[in-house]
Structures are given as C-alpha cells and as structure tokens.
Design goal:
175 residues, mainly alpha, flat
Length: 175
C-alpha cells in the first residue's frame, strides 16, 4: 500500500517510465576537433623546446665568457716602436685648428654673386630670369587639359521627362 501512496505523491512526469538520456545532435560538439591529448603533447614539446633553448644559450654565454681574452697587465713588457708612438704633449698646440670657413662674409658674397650670374645669364637649358618672368606674364602658365568626363546618368524611363517629373524606372508599356 505504501507503494501506491508513493506513486500518487510523485509528480506525473516521474510516474511514467524513467526518462531516457536526452540527446540533441545539433548541440553536440564536433568530435573531429583537436582533442585534449594533442594539446597536452604540444605543451610538453613546447616546454622541452624552451628548456633546450635556455640550456644552449646558458652554455654559449659561459663558453664566451671563459674564452674572453684577458687584457695585458699595465706593467707588461710590451715595447711600442717610437715610429708608432703618437706625438707627446698638448694636442691643441701640436695640431692646428680646422680652417673650414675662414671668412664667412666673403664666402657668402661669392655664393650670392654666383647665384645672380646663373639667374641672369642664358646657358644650356635655361634662360635669364627676367626673360622667363616676361614670357610667363605674356603667355600665362601652361595648363594641363581637363580629362573628358563620362556621360551623366539620366533619370526616368527615357521618355524625355525631367528627373522626378514622372516616368520613373518602369518600362514605357507598364505605366
């Protein structure tokens, strides 16, 4: 009797057969994707590679540090021939100061005179500046010809009406 009472107390959905496993194929994941095993193998290979690179770099640094040529001590008996030894004393007194532009004003005047001469004389490929100014004033500057514009689009159905004045986009027979 208690079984009958338990059945009557249960919700109606539980009284029926126990629910089977519900599967929705459109919500399942694609089993052809990369599995966790491949990701773990990749991470292990990455860690091993990083470790090997670290060890190789560390070994190279140790090797290069050990093979460094030690500088000769200051009291070493190294003899430099007199011909290779530089001059002794104050270098400002031994070497003259550079004379790059001894007279700046004279250099600027020479530059201006050369520029004026080039502007005012005719030569290969150019005319005096005054003649060029007169030619431009008389003839004007050359103008590049304007490119031909494409034909303008016409609105309407081609019956001669202005745009928006009827016609529309329908063929003549459908109006």
């Amino acid at each position: 009797m208690s079984d009958a009472k338990d059945k009557s107390r249960r919700p109606e959905t539980e009284r029926e057969n126990p629910p089977a496993e519900v599967r929705h194929p459109e919500t399942m994941y694609d089993r052809s994707d990369l599995g966790a095993r491949g990701i773990v193998y990749f991470m292990i290979a990455l860690a091993v590679t990083v470790l090997v690179i670290h060890l190789v770099s560390w070994g190279m640094v140790r090797y290069l540090a050990a093979s460094r040529v030690a500088p000769a001590p200051r009291n070493a008996a190294v003899v430099t021939p007199f011909s290779q030894a530089g001059p002794k004393g104050n270098p400002a007194l031994l070497f003259p100061a550079p004379q790059l532009q001894p007279d700046e004003v004279a250099d600027l005047n020479k530059f201006r005179a050369a520029t004026e001469e080039q502007l005012n004389t005719s030569g290969a490929g150019h005319i005096p500046i005054e003649q060029a100014i007169e030619a431009v004033a008389k003839n004007g500057l050359p103008v590049r010809p304007q490119p031909a514009l494409p034909p303008r689009a016409r609105f309407g159905s081609g019956d001669g009406t202005s745009a928006g004045g009827g016609g529309g986009t329908e063929p003549k027979g459908n109006q």
